[in-house]
Amino acid sequence: MEPELIADFECVTGEGPIWHEAEQRLYWADIPTGRMFRYDPAAGTYEQFYDGPVVGGFTIQLDGSLLLFGERGSVTIWRDGETESVLDEISAERDTRFNDVIADPEGRVYCGTMPTENRPGRLYRLDPDGTLTELVDGLGVSNGLGFTPDLSHMYHTDTTKREINRYRYDRATGDLSEKELFVQTPEGEGGPDGMTVDVDGYVWSARWDGNALFRYTPDGKLESSYPFPAKKVSSVVFGGADYRDVYVTTAGGQNKSEEGAGAGALFRLRPGAQGRPEFLSRIGI
Fold first, then answer.
1. Number of H helices, E strands in the chain
2. Which residues, in sequence order, are bridge partners of residue 183?
3. pTM, to two decimals
4. Could you list the active site residues?
5. Which residues pair with 176 in a beta bridge?
6. What is the pLDDT of residues 28-41, one digit of tens each?
7. Which of 27, 139, 157, 215 has the most CB atoms less than 10 A away?
């Protein structure tokens, strides 16, 4: 199956695609350049709508605004071009930035940070009242997250360790426990990056430096793969009115000669699987 090229902004690190159900549009970001984009499939149009501080990850809020996770542990609400600070910084994260994030059914957000030269990355939980809790330390690069369809477990990716782990998830408290290895990707074949889960519980994992998107069965066996014309396949999400469109971001757009003709672009696949709406964050709501 050939991926369909949707838009090419030559992103250095195209990331974080998410379907905005209320708007029926796809949003994504280019992390290091501080740009964000959106695509309207009904109109067939796309645009850059944001140029500002770095956005490592973001969620859609219950009221339709965007919750942006940036440098120094900052968290900001973006609404129609206006911003409102939730967290100015996290003292322990002043030398780094947030990376991949995900909202849970209760409106909390699980948010990972990048490592520095002096310490590894971390995974936090931000509650709707603004309380921040550190959950996991000792990470390489905290990356893709997702929930099993029955909401009993949450997946969490560590790209540096080439691992996707699964935790028991407590919806009432937001706590994570009973970590277990779900997938260990082969050495020398890139690292798992962004991910999502379809309605049947299959895990879709983008592969940084792996040239492909991979689909795993609910028990962690490789079921299929989809090649892309880019080395750095960075993230994936389901979208469209029926959640049967798979949107995929790639990185390396500043160096297509080495990274591939599709590096830094947004693609779409229609592989026959169906996804689910991402949960909405409720921070400050």
1. 1, 24
2. 164
3. 0.97
4. 193
5. 169
6. 999 999 999 999 99
7. 157
